[in-house]
Write a structure and sequence with these properties.
Elements: H1 6-9, E1 13-17, H2 22-33, E2 37-43, E3 57-63, H3 70-84, E4 88-91, H4 95-102, E5 113-114, H5 119-126, H6 128-137, E6 145-148, H7 151-162, E7 171-175, H8 194-203, E8 212-216, E9 219-230, E10 233-241, E11 248-250, H9 256-270, E12 274-282, E13 288-294, H10 310-315, E14 335-337, H11 339-347, H12 360-364, E15 367-368, H13 377-397, E16 403-405, E17 410-412
Parallel strand pairs: 1-2, 1-4, 2-3, 4-5, 14-15
Antiparallel strand pairs: 6-8, 7-8, 9-10, 9-12, 11-14, 12-13, 16-17
Helix pairs in contact: 4-5
């Protein structure tokens, strides 16, 4: 890796949260390599998370769940900030927790930064309809999308389409904001059976508090991009082939420049500071468009480790790339995966559905996303302590689970976060 120099300007005390996630150890290393003082934190039952064993971490903390104990969580964060004179918080948490960090900055001392979008921006990007409207206003490509806050919204939308010439488009109805417990039955609308269609729309139970969107059906393959911004400038970027359970990352060259330009345009239009992930698919005429935005860090950060500016991208409030080489990107040959995930796939512990199964030669051409020569302990801790400790808890409780996700460091269950 290329050692950065962002701490020479000012050494920061940094709190990285979401310690069970592989992305948390990647961020901790990036900041620590530059010379910053790094602390980590995670909720229960992840007290044995691999990130706490990172060689660049000074101390680890256990947090209450912000979704269950918001007041206690906030008090604990405030206590850590005061105790360690924290200058910067970098959230690497689960989607369901990320909103809490977006709104946290309003209650922190003025000198403490959170490397995430503010609450209002995060909410705007997280909602599929309002994000779509951002793209429309910025003149960026996007799929046809309508808001659904009640049954009548959907009835009016399809009635209006019936009055126009048939363009062959189909639509799906899905939650406007991430909801792991949402009903997963999918119909491609409109259908000939109007009674069934109306019953289906009614069963979504859309309200202003639980909004849905009606969105144009797009074509596979699905791609993803991870983008980092500072004051409207694109500071880091990765573009990759995506899957529902994505544990293999490498730079995708096809349409790379197009998506990079789209991301830069979004950052400039909204004057963004923070990080986000776009899910992209193709329209019927082959145009690649974003279908939704996740305003938070992505596991694809593992491919960006080693760039000289990775630390500055997260820590320097004044970092602005002076040339394209200053933007943090991966090398084309970088290939990252989680070795135990591939071993379990080969052994048949779960079927290779909605994921990438590699051959032995492919594995030999890349490397484990957590394993680093200067910091081997997180790699060992993930596979020998974090995951085994979680499996032990599941065996004791006797609860059902689907698979082990070595990337996010947890046991996946139906309706999980």
């Amino acid at each position: 890796f290329e050692k950065g120099s962002s701490a020479e300007k000012r050494q920061l005390n940094i709190l990285v949260t979401g310690g069970k996630m592989s992305k948390a150890s990647a961020v901790a290393r990036a900041c620590g390599r530059d010379g910053h003082k790094v602390f980590t934190a995670e909720i229960m039952p992840y007290q044995f998370c691999h990130t706490r064993f990172c060689g660049y971490v000074t101390k680890h903390y256990v947090l209450p769940r912000p979704t269950v104990q918001p007041k206690e969580w906030e008090a604990t964060i405030m206590s850590i900030v005061k105790e360690q004179n924290i200058d910067l918080i970098i959230p690497c948490t689960a989607p369901i927790e990320s909103s809490a960090y977006a709104h946290l900055r309003e209650k922190l001392p003025a000198n403490v930064r959170v490397f995430a979008f503010d609450g209002a921006t995060s909410d705007e990007l997280d909602n599929k309809y309002t994000f779509n409207q951002v793209l429309v206003k910025a003149g960026l490509p996007c799929p046809e999308t309508a808001a659904m806050e009640c049954l009548q919204d959907a009835l009016d939308f399809f009635k209006e389409r019936e009055s126009k010439p048939d363009d062959g488009k189909k639509f799906i109805v899905k939650p406007a904001v991430y909801d792991p417990k949402a009903r997963t039955e999918i119909l491609f609308l409109p259908i000939d059976d109007k009674e069934r269609q109306n019953e289906y729309l009614k069963s979504r139970n859309a309200t202003k508090d639980v909004p849905y969107v009606i969105q144009e059906v797009l074509q596979e393959p699905e791609y993803g991009c991870y983008a980092i911004f500072n004051k409207g400038h694109l500071t880091g970027f990765e573009f990759f082939e995506s899957a529902a359970s994505c544990l293999v990352y490498r730079q995708l060259r096809k349409q790379y420049d197009q998506v990079k330009e789209l991301s830069a345009g979004l950052g400039k239009a909204m004057n963004l500071t923070g990080q986000l992930t776009l899910d992209l698919m193709h329209t019927s005429d082959g145009k690649l468009v974003p279908i939704e935005c996740n305003p938070r860090i992505h596991s694809a950060v593992c491919t960006l480790e080693g760039h000289k500016n990775t630390g500055a991208m997260f820590t320097d409030p004044d970092f602005t790339p002076q040339s394209s080489t200053d933007i943090v990107t991966s090398k084309p040959e970088t290939y990252r995966y989680w070795v135990m995930d591939q071993v379990f796939l080969m052994a048949g512990f779960w079927k290779p559905k909605n994921c990438f199964k590699l051959s032995i030669p492919q594995m030999l051409s890349g490397g484990d996303a957590i394993l680093c020569g200067d910091d081997p302990m997180p790699f060992l801790a993930m596979y020998l302590l974090q995951i085994p400790s979680l499996l032990a808890l599941e065996l004791i409780s006797g609860t059902e689970w689907l698979k082990i996700d070595f990337c996010i460091g947890k046991i996946v269950k139906e309706g999980g976060d």
